[in-house]
Amino acid sequence: MREKWKAFTKRERLLFAAALVFLALAVLLRFVPGLRFSALLCLCAAAVLFVLFMLECAARRGSRAAVWGRRVLLALLAAGFVLFAALETMVIRGSLAEKTDEPVSAVIVLGAGVNGETPSLTLRTRIDAAAAYLEEHPDVPVILSGGQGPGEAITEAECMRRELVKRGIPESQLHLEEESTSTVENFTYSRRLLPELGLDAKTATLAVITSDFHCFRAHLIAQRAGLAVFDIPARTDWVLLNANYYVREFFALGKTLLFD
Prior knowledge:
five-stranded parallel beta sheet; alpha/beta; 9 helices
């Protein structure tokens, strides 16, 4: 085994070792709550590194197909990193929005995961941001937007309602949208509720409360739905979890730009 290891070049050994490191990280992160996406990303990185390792070995033995395969794969990776940097810059810039005292017609709070009947960390940060904003703006109607997904005993909207009522927000101020299962549907179905609040979707100004990493994409989708909005970001202090969400948002934004 040691002789086989010595037969590899330094670059081949580095690629193989890096693949093992990412594979170990994938296994470790798989069991950390909220970081399953990072685990999947590490698994993909391990697979790519192993493919590069195999191509490197084959190229050293004189395979022209391996040489070209390595070049194509490296070119694709470089293009992917450039695209990642461009989209992630948009996501980060969107997350820097600050709370404003601009008058609003209504507030929309976007839902996130519910564990049974308990808000997830992401949803709790949005509830915290909503409660803080509504304490300063007690007369603004609020649409709580979010349906019921797998593992959720109640809708995300109902979960937010319960938590905000506990914090002293009048129940009469809260209006539930309980059908949506995506950000696109959040705004599509919330828009339909505006006439019930006496608002015209074409002229209303809406404050959207969502996670900081989600602000740019939510703003883009809201504009596509014909809504005039500004963002109130809910921030998460857990650095590792936040990094996971920001990277995941790159893929979500790509999907929105291509298909939504």
